[in-house]
Write a structure and sequence with these properties.
The protein is built from six helices and five strands. Helix content is 49%, strand content 20%. Strands 3-2-1-4-5 form a five-stranded parallel beta sheet, sandwiched between helices. By secondary structure, it is an alpha/beta fold.
């Protein structure tokens, strides 16, 4: 039985399903929800004023606030299941950040959602789940 389960968490249906799976299958484990803020994604959508002093600090605070809103709903669902979850927000590329967190925080198992991409979109966009599965230091369950 896993003692520490990591659930990468964003606004996708896949991460919601992963949370439900973790709550059902690992009710006695420490469950950590991890939200990754991807600076690369932010860079592509940076407005012209993105070079002004303070922009990135304000942007990051906004991202953390959005993550906290996501976590609030997840905490409520976990509470209904009688489980308390921990939450963490980190900055980085999702695949690397998830695997690094798992390695650095004694995670025993990763439970994550699949976005269900296939064909060309999967080739062009890549797959975080696939990257985590390939490089994870621990077992990974991918939930659809």
């Amino acid at each position: 039985m896993s003692r520490h389960v990591l659930v990468p968490f964003d606004e996708s249906n896949g991460s919601e399903h992963a949370l439900e799976h973790a709550l059902e299958q690992h009710p006695d484990a420490t469950i950590t929800l991890l939200h990754v803020v991807d600076l690369m994604e932010a860079g592509y959508s940076t407005p012209v004023d993105g070079t002004l002093p303070g922009f990135w600090e304000d942007w990051f605070e906004s991202e953390k606030a959005q993550a906290e809103e996501l976590f609030e709903g997840a905490r409520a669902r976990a509470s209904e299941a009688g489980v308390e979850v921990e939450t963490e927000t980190v900055v980085g590329r999702p695949t690397r950040a998830i695997n690094d967190y798992a390695e650095e925080h004694d995670v025993d198992h990763v439970v994550m959602g699949s976005h269900g991409r296939s064909g060309v979109s999967r080739v062009l966009l890549g797959s975080v789940a696939e990257g985590v599965v390939r490089r994870a230091p621990v077992p990974v369950t991918v939930v659809r």
